[in-house]
Amino acid sequence: MTTLMLIRHGRTAWNAEGRWQGQADPPLDAIGLQQAEALAAHLKAEPITAIYSSPQIRARQTAEALAAALPPGVPVILDDRLKERNIGAWEGLTMAEVHERFPDGYHPEWWINGAPGGENLAELTARTAAAFGEIAAAHPEAAIAVVSHGGALNAYLFDLLQIAPGKRVTFRFDNTALARISVSPGRVHLISLGEAPYLNGLV
Question: Where do runs of H (alpha helix) occur along the chain?
Fold first, then answer.
C-alpha cells in the first residue's frame, strides 16, 4: 500500500485576516514559516521518498521546508492539479465581504456549485482525484508527502471515502496539519486526520 501524508500549507497573512485565497498566491507569513519548520521537524525521521506540492507559493514554501529536513535527494515535484480551488469572484474577500457583495451567492450549496466564476465540486474533484491516483500508482509501497490546500484536500477525501455531494461533512485541516492514509486498489485505510501536535504554542 502507498502511504500518503496529506498536508495543508502553512499560514499566510490572508489566512490570518480570514480572506478567501483560492488561486491567489500570497506567501507564508512569519507564523507560517514557523509552522513549516515545525512540520519538517515532526516528519524528518519518516521514510518519505518524494514530496508532491501545489505550485502555489504557500504550498511550495511548506514543501521546501520539509524537503530540507529530509535526507538529500528527496524531490519536490510540482503539480498544477494540486492547486487550491478556483474561488472566482470571492478571491481576496473576507467572509463578511462575500456576504455583503453576494447576498444570494453564499449558501450551503455553494460548495457543490462553486463561487461565481470559480470551479464547481465536480471539476475540483476530477483534477485532485486524478493527481492523487497517479501519485499512488507511481509509488507503490512508499511513503509520500503531498502539500496542497484545504479545499483541494477535502475534495480528494470526499471522493476517496465516497461521501456523497451535499452531505454536510468537512475535514478540518489547520495550517500544516496532516492526514495519513494508506491506499491500494480497492482499499483505503484512514490512519490519522488533523494530526498537528507540533503546532502547540503556535497560532
Answer: 13-17, 30-43, 57-69, 95-101, 110-113, 121-138, 150-160
Looking only at Cα atoms, what is the longest distance across the chain? 51
Q: What are φ and ψ of residue 201, in 5° steps?
A: 90, -15
Q: Which fold has domain 2-199?
A: Rossmann fold (3.40.50)
Whether 139 is a known active-site residue: answer no
**Active-site residue, 107 included:** no
Mean pLDDT by 10 residues, the chain (203 residues): 97 97 97 97 97 98 98 96 97 94 82 93 96 96 97 95 83 94 92 91 68
Task: Give CA 16 to chain center in angstroms.
Answer: 17
Q: Which of 17, 46, 64, 84 is catalytic?
A: 84
